[in-house]
């Protein structure tokens, strides 16, 4: 049955990603009438097919690595540690399933109207929802938030449409652990899966179009990541453009031809060449929302779209594609919907690439500081100098920070090494507080922690006090 009269609500959320679900729960709990439409992933991309399952598996890869190196720590294990695929899948599914269940409950407790179905716009601030149960209904919001995220992009590679390949979603079904895994794309997803599957025991070949992995990073850091992955058994092919792909037979090898004529042969191919916004089926014209030339929803620095009272947040709004960025969008939207005036301008979004060991980043790289014409100094240490790393026999990596030579403020940091993602927050807070680097250098940080390495890092710039 199609109900033609739209249900009127204070807030309509289209797509239940991090920003949308947080806002829906928050406003419903505050007494607003709220409807949230989610196509199929209760809790959104991060929980179901992105951060949470991948980091659960990174945890497994690290447990395996620790077990392999247990003898270094004076521990003897019986037999060669190995992956048990069914148990690996159970581990991942229990983490994901637990979080999905918790979200179902949180949605219900908040009092929102949670609808599993696909929404498309049919008029100003109005969607028609084809619900999972077969019914159709129309909903109009006083305010509307679009939070439909992104989905894996497939490059226009001859043969790709006819070849069974994996994306970051299908690989997570863990149907098998391929002996030989090809990965196309050496960005966040490509590097994380390459490290993880190499540690699980696959022979991985990572094919990257540009001449370095993670092109947004400094070349010295990217080169060290290449070395780390190579030591883990990954064959890294940079400046390698693929020209076609095909399978030998239905279940045969996948063959990836490169521009130099060489042909790579694998059991599976993971395509990790970026993500595209989920906007094409939304019929955004009907609500007066325009998109950028890359298909993202056009927003201003308050996350307002081109239509009155229609907002967008998270990946689909074209900002940095991280869950914590989307969560920060929620805070901005909540403020702007409740009479405050908050923008995205100047916000600092860090990130961590969960290879093993991990790379954590905030602010400017050295390359970006140079390009911006900044007068800067670089602090740099090897992780091997940090006492905590010695106690763990985990001394791989380099820490770098860029500081303003005139003001002593920290402009950015690249921390590659054990638990770097836990340490970057300290640097970020110093940056938010506009502290001179000497404040961290001279702070008594607890020993022996990885954070203590920040004393050593900034010590490399000398012992002079900050002169305001
Ligand atoms: C493999 C992988 C690993 C990642 N790891 C990390 C990480 O470690 N840390 C990190 O910060 N980020 C990570 N990311 C990025 C992170 O997952 C995204 O930035 C984040 O999930 C984006 O959230 P969002 O709020 O934009 O919306 P999403 O969580 O993408 O939610 C959008 C929702 O909208 C729904 N939807 C779409 N169209 C419709 C429609 N027409 N009607 C109804 N519903 C609709 C979708 O089903 C989806 O649930 C990773 C991404 C991938 C792919
Ligand atoms: N730890 C994290 O926070 C995390 C983890 C995974 C993903 N993500 C998010 O997901 C987004 C998407 O990740 P991604 O790795 O798919 O995208 P990406 O843009 O980071 O990397 C894709 C890489 O593939 C290369 N490439 C594109 N087409 C190619 C081709 N035909 N042949 C060879 N190389 C090609 C690109 O040059 C690029 O370096 C990221 O922007 C990131 O924000 C975050």
TrEMBL record:
Q: Which Pfam families match?
A: Pyr_redox_2 (PF07992), Pyr_redox_dim (PF02852)
Cysteine disulfide partners in this protein: 46-51
**Which positions fall inside the Pyridine nucleotide-disulphide oxidoreductase dimerisation domain?**
349-454
What cofactors does the UniProt entry give for this protein? FAD
Q: Can you give the residue ranges of the FAD/NAD(P)-binding domain?
A: 10-327
Task: List the InterPro entries hit by this protein, alphabetically.
Answer: FAD/NAD-bd_sf (IPR036188), FAD/NAD-binding_dom (IPR023753), FAD/NAD-linked_Rdtase_dimer_sf (IPR016156), Pyr_nuc-diS_OxRdtase (IPR001100), Pyr_nucl-diS_OxRdtase_dimer (IPR004099)
Record-linked Gene3D superfamilies = 3.30.390.30, FAD/NAD(P)-binding domain
Molecular-function GO term, any one: NAD(P)H dehydrogenase (quinone) activity
Give the top-rank taxon of the lineage listed in the UniProt record for this protein.
Answer: Bacteria
Cofactor binding note: Binds 1 FAD per subunit.
Keyword annotations of the record: FAD, Flavoprotein, NAD, Nucleotide-binding, Oxidoreductase, Pyruvate
Q: Which family does it belong to?
A: Belongs to the class-I pyridine nucleotide-disulfide oxidoreductase family.
What is the protein named?
Pyruvate/2-oxoglutarate dehydrogenase complex, dihydrolipoamide dehydrogenase (E3) component
- Where does this protein come from, organism-wise? Microlunatus soli
